Each structure stands twice: as C-alpha cells, then as structure tokens.
Amino acid sequence: MISKKIKEIAKERIEILFDLAEKEFDEHPERSNRYVRIARKILMKVQEKMPKKYVFNYCKKCHHYLKVGKNATIRKKKNFVNLTCKDCNFTRKIYVNKKNN
Questions:
Q1: Three-class SS of the chain
Q2: How many CB atoms lie within 10 A of CB 52?
Q3: Is the pLDDT of residue 101 over 70?
Q4: Mean pLDDT over residues 60-78, rounded?
Q5: Which domains, ranges and CATH numbers included, belong to the chain?
C-alpha cells in the first residue's frame, strides 16, 4: 500500500513537471511532451489520477502537452467543447453544465 506522504510528493512533482512543460513549450516542445510522459508515469506508479487542473493540458492519445493556438484547437458546440490535438488529430469532448455558465 502506498502511503499518503508518497502520494503527496508525487502530486508536488506533477505540478513542477507541468510548470516546466508550460515554460519550455515555445522553445522545446519535445521537452514539454517528455515532461508530460514522466508525470503520467509517476501517477501510474502511485496509482493516482491526474489532478483536474492538468487533465486538459495534455492529449490522452499521444501524451503531448497541449497549448491552445499552437498545437491544439477549441471549438464550442451546444452542450460541449471540442479540444483537438493537432499532432494526432484526437478530439476530446468536454461536456459543459449549462447551470454553471
């Protein structure tokens, strides 16, 4: 069984890796993609889910870091938003609750 302390350290590392991915994306996009893969491996080791604030910052199919306008597009439909990765053309639907808008 994995302790709470280990899971806490893993979440801190995930935050650091996503911050680095964001900073490095403009100059070294391949490095940002590597940071995302490392973050996913850490989460798999500790059997945790990706924190909600980072779920839509990477492509679920190719595991690349996504930055809207650079390698991702957003299209708004009626009840959902489409987030498309330009690297692999994977489209992810994000359902929007109309009550919260």
A1: CCCHHHHHHHHHHHHHHHHHHHHHCCCCHHHHHHHHHHHHHHHHHHCCCCCHHHHHHECCCCCCECCECCCEEEEECCCEEEEEECCCCCEEEEECCHHHC
A2: 7
A3: no
A4: 94
A5: 4-100 (1.20.5.420)
Is 49 within 8 Å of 43 (Cβ atoms)? yes
For the stretch 78-90, what's the b/e string if a residue is b when 16 or more beta carbons lie within 10 angstroms of its beta carbon?
A: eeeeebbbebeee
Residue with tokens 């302390």: 5
Residues 42, 14: contact at Cβ < 8 Å? yes
Please write the tens of the pLDDT for every residue from 9-66.
999 999 999 999 999 999 999 999 999 999 999 999 999 999 999 999 999 999 999 9
| Per-residue confidence band for 100, with pLDDT thresholds at 50, 70 and 90 | low
Distance CA 3, CA 20 (A): 26
